[in-house]
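Protein in question reproduced for absentees:

***
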Amino acid sequence: MIIAKLLSSDSHVVEPPDLWATRIEPKFRDRAPRVVQEDDGDWWIVDGQRTNSFQGGAQAGKRFEHHDAVKPAARFAEVRPGAYLPEAHLADNEADGVYGSVLYPTEGLTLYGVPDSDLLTAVFRVYNDWIAEFCRAAPPRLKGIAMINVDDIPGAIKELERTRARGLVGAMIQTPPQPPLRQLGLKMTGFYPPNSGSFGRRSTAQTAILYYTM
């Protein structure tokens, strides 16, 4: 008898508010992602710029059933624990009949726009270590995707191979915004350079490279 296993190929964790504050190198700490409480919700601040709130993790399913109640911001306290605790994530999956998840970031998706390449590399390294630890709770069922800064190709290859050794199954680099998004003024810094094609070809890591378009 064959029992089908349902897999989620595009699940998103929600990064804890203290993730970078407690882990990043001291020289980047003042500019790294941190959370501030404002009147309408909790917001990430990165290098002085406000980026994202916690509305996604706090309003799961609401856009389908109560779309008029969806808010543009939320508190971290409203986020389901399954978004940031592996054991709770597995329990949520089981309740939905899902065996395993391929895991992507949430706040991390906004970080490719950080123009300081050294800061970006340091921020990504912290996230990659955290998601690798998250997935160690159940390696057959939790598959993490690394974030890679390809401004420096040799450095990107080194990080790709490091994260593969830590158990991550793929790596994400971001493509430039498509023309309609450019017309909206979406920031263009931080995207992959013209020679980024050599990144995947030169690495010896057996892993998937994912191009994420915002």
